[in-house]
Amino acid sequence: MHAQNVMQAAIRGRWAVAAIFLANGFLTGAWAPQIPVFLTRLDISKFTLGLLILLFGAGAVTAMTWCGHLISRHGSRTVLRWFGLVGSFGLLVVALAPNVPLAAIAMFIFGGSIGGMDVAMNANAVAVERRLSRAIMSSSHGFWSLGGFAGGALGGFAIQNYGHLAHATVVTALAFAVIAVAVRHLVAEDKPLQGSTGGNGHRKFALPGNPLVYLVGLMALLTMISEGAVLDWAALYLRQELGADLAIAGLAYAAFSGVMAVMRFLGDGVRNRFGAVTTLRVSALVAAAGMLVAGLAPSPWLAIAAFAFCGFGIANMVPILFSAGGNQEGMSSGTGMSVVTTMGYSGILVAPSAIGFIAEHSSFGPIFVALSGLLVVVLLMAGLAHRAEFAPDAAPAE
């Protein structure tokens, strides 16, 4: 009977963390159609916008660093509760910012809350996997992409018809309601974290000596630069360079996320059938082709279709790379995951301001073409992700 109760709690925890992935993606996707309004409302240049998005990335990476420490002390369930409930207000804070200095603070807070949620929910998904003795990572990321699709698809229409502040308020209310219900059912780790606090609590800050984990982290970095570029700049690209209206411009990230969601729900089965390395290679090739066509597209609808095709490829690249990082030889899964996650999200920290600066002096089209080249590099390095080739039954090791 006890075992049955534990399994039922794990199943509830699986759907609870899925709901938080969904809410996190919804908040992130809802930000994408806010960007063109943000630019005009504050009367800033693309370069200044890039710097503000840089602060979003800085907040995310800062929170991620501290989040790892907090999880080691308090567990992912507690940390996710706090980051989730606070993070649901991040978009509203940005939408309320009346000037650049306050917008800078708001972007840092928004990025920090989203980044902290991201690390905690991925860590909690690992705890659920161990309880269920099966993988849920790709489908969890699928819920994130589904949320991103909903946020991006509805955002442009809502902003155009009701205004950016009304849109942010509704997004906040929906996200808070989902997270408030979900956090009550999250699972906790099986206590190695707190049970070994003695003098070992800070061991996780030692840098791993295995160089392979940093190369996997580099692949995550290149992949997430491309993913972040679509989030931050695709709507502006369609609006300013391809002549789309605000509602259509918001569809670029929506199409990207929607296709990613479908593929991530299928990702565990695809990976089990064809292997992680083969799946990563084909995915990188497809993503590079989609990004290339998006950068060369003469019309908004072709660009939207190309971004969707790119999402088809990128969908399972990050889950595979996270899995490869968490299965490195000679280190704990948490340490490997931490390195790859932090390096990956550094792409969101560095890329936006660089893209904004380049776009200020040229255009977005050539930038997306160049990003396709970064995905080709991931294709060439795909063999380094071989540690993600593990038998499903071996995942829930104690």
TrEMBL record:
Which keywords does this chain's UniProt record carry?
Membrane, Transmembrane, Transmembrane helix
Where are the bilayer-spanning segments?
12-32, 44-67, 79-97, 103-121, 142-159, 165-187, 212-234, 246-266, 278-297, 303-324, 336-358, 364-385
* Source superkingdom: Bacteria
Q: Where in the cell is it found?
A: Membrane
Task: Indicate how the chain sits in the lipid bilayer.
Answer: Multi-pass membrane protein
Q: Where is the Major facilitator superfamily (MFS) profile domain?
A: 212-398
**Which GO molecular-function terms appear in the entry?**
transmembrane transporter activity
Could you give one GO CC term from the UniProt record?
membrane
Q: What is this protein called?
A: Fucose permease
